Amino acid sequence: MAKSAHKNQLAPGISRLSRSKVFSKRAAYKVAKESKPVATEAPAQGEHKSYVKNDLVVALTAKRNVMSQALEVRKAKATHKAQRAPKLRQSITPGTVLIMLAGRFRGQRVVFLKQLASGLLLITGPFKLNGIPLRRVNQAYVIATSTKVDLSSYKVGAKFNDEYFKHEQVAKLTGTEEEFFGKEAQKKAHPAHKIADQKTADKDVVAAVAKVPYLASYL
Question: 105, 125, 116: which is closest to 218 by C-alpha?
Answer without folding.
Answer: 125
